């Protein structure tokens, strides 16, 4: 009998994974220990339990700020600067611990002041005119991208805040090559300059984008326009978080019409997350709406694979 599709290999650009059950380290991870050596060991151990042969782990959000601003006991993303020697030692040991188990680790990048970077305020750029991130933020993001590459992460995921399309935000525009005219501008904000910076540093085939889009029929046009732009960049994967693509159906899942349109708009691999049950995860991959499913960090990697293997059709 052939294995479940969720347990088969997948290429995410140049990131080749042995199965499609991805694990997220979560955004509330706290590292124990007061001495640097204890913190390094604690972080490495917490990620080792997520790793499996050929399995992909996505890190807790790491903020692209060169100086730490929070205190001990805060989430890791706020506690350490990515340039701090202890932070870099911890991530090196963590990457090694995941690699030793045969797994891969992608860094999730959280931009500092993301709302300010992605949106236009009442006194800022008008809708239809893209607002650029400040030069200082671009510099921080560039240094972050280089540092994560030099630490030998296997890829990088840009974690984006996509606001309500009804708000007044900067627009993504796309040239319609067939008509030779600009497509209508859609009110959706996106850090295109930061994404291009990541691509220049890593190559598009090791860069992913994480979005939490609405799948309401009345709010699809802005997201589809954004996905059309991402298609042209040929990124490694799109991570759709909390997209809620399914509705109940006897014996399985039914993909909503809005979610089907969203998936049709993007032609590269999609990782989906949203608290799906094991059966829902298997069904979503079988349906080809998602190419892989990201599970929360409450699961450890080996146990998750055992449960998926044992799951009866």
Automatic annotation (TrEMBL):
SUPFAM superfamilies: FMN-linked oxidoreductases. It comes from the Bacteria. PANTHER family: NADH OXIDOREDUCTASE-RELATED (PTHR22893), NADPH DEHYDROGENASE 2-RELATED (PTHR22893:SF91). InterPro entries: Aldolase_TIM, Oye-like. This is NADH:flavin oxidoreductase/NADH oxidase N-terminal domain-containing protein. It comes from Roseomonas elaeocarpi.
């Amino acid at each position: 009998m052939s294995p479940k599709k969720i347990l088969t290999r997948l290429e995410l650009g140049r990131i080749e994974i042995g199965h499609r059950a991805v694990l997220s380290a979560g955004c509330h991870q706290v590292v124990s220990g007061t001495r640097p050596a204890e913190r390094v060991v604690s972080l490495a151990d917490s990620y080792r339990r997520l790793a499996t042969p050929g399995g992909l782990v996505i890190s807790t959000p790491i903020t692209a700020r060169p100086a730490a601003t929070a205190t001990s006991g805060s989430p890791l993303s706020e506690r350490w600067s990515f340039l701090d020697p202890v932070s870099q030692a911890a991530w090196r040991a963590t990457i090694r611990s995941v690699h030793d188990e045969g797994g891969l680790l992608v860094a999730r990048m959280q931009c500092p002041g993301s709302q300010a970077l992605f949106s236009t305020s009442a006194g800022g750029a008008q809708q239809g005119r893209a607002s650029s991130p400040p030069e200082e933020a671009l510099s921080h993001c560039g240094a972050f991208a280089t540092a994560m590459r030099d630490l030998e992460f296997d890829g990088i995921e840009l974690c984006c805040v996509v606001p309500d399309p009804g708000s007044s935000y900067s627009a993504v525009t796309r040239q319609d090559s067939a008509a030779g005219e600009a497509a209508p501008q859609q009110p959706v904000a996106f850090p295109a300059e930061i994404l291009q910076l990541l691509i220049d540093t890593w190559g598009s085939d090791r860069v992913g984008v994480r979005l939490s889009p609405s799948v309401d029929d009345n709010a699809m046009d802005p997201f589809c326009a954004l996905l059309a732009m991402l298609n042209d960049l040929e990124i490694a994967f799109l991570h759709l978080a909390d997209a809620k693509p399914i509705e109940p159906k006897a014996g399985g899942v039914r993909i909503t019409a809005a979610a089907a349109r969203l998936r049709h708009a993007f032609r590269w691999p999609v990782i989906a997350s949203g608290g799906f049950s094991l059966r829902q995860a298997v069904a979503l991959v079988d349906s080809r709406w998602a190419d892989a499913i990201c599970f929360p960090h409450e699961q450890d990697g080996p146990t998750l694979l055992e449960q998926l293997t044992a799951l009866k059709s």
